[in-house]
């Protein structure tokens, strides 16, 4: 980590404590992601069946990985009744063995939820635990993601094209997933071959990285005696 004259970059693979230790010791660039605190935002215009499938897959398909969902945000229009979409999704998660940690709005609709704490919004559980929250708007969802998320992978479920475009423009994330599970943010799934790492940095690589992301470029100027004046 101190051989900056011999090594161009370090890519730590592992938990947050390992990555922070590498960053503290390194004398050379480090491509990193500290945590995978990933979100699914279920918009007011979401297809109910699609939202159910995506939320269950994103949380339960494989919990101990960095692209599993840790928080699900529901537009408040979906949180008005115990038989509404938000409550149905939460009950399906509970039935699948997930501990649901709910804000006050959703906790009032559920009998088996645990009250969420402020710390839950920033936690990468890596377990059968999910935090759920009602938000007033898409802007509120994006604000929550940009405040608590880890810039790894965040999804929107919506049939509203303008909402999707606004989400893509505003959310600060390496992987913006549109009507699909967060579990797809993976180098192999992206067709990059062997995944070397996932970067939540903004420079020089971002998101799942393949071999091409470890290559730099070279400018080649071909002249015939030209000089600059």
Quickly list its features.
single chain, 9 strands, seven-stranded parallel sheet, alpha/beta, elongated, about 25% helix, about 230 residues
Low-confidence blocks of residues: none
**End-to-end C-alpha gap:** 45 Å
Identify the strand order in the major beta sheet.
4-3-5-2-1-6-7
Give the percentage of residues in beta strands: 15-25%
Give the CA-based shape: elongated
Helix percent reads 25-40%
Strand elements, count: 9
Rg (CA only): 21 Å
Structural class: alpha/beta
Major pleated sheet: 7 strands, parallel
Order of helices and strands: HEHEHEHEEHEHEEE
Structure description:
By secondary structure, this protein is of the alpha/beta class. 26% of the residues lie in helices and 17% in strands. The protein has a seven-stranded parallel β-sheet with strand order 4-3-5-2-1-6-7, sandwiched between helices. A two-stranded antiparallel sheet has the order 8-9. It is elongated. The mean pLDDT is 96. It has helices at residues 16-25, 48-60, 85-95, 104-107, 138-148, 161-170, and strands at residues 38-42, 69-75, 99-102, 114-115, 129-135, 153-157, 175-178, 197-199, 207-209. The longest helix is centred in the first third of the chain and has 13 residues, at 48-60. The chain has six helices and nine strands.
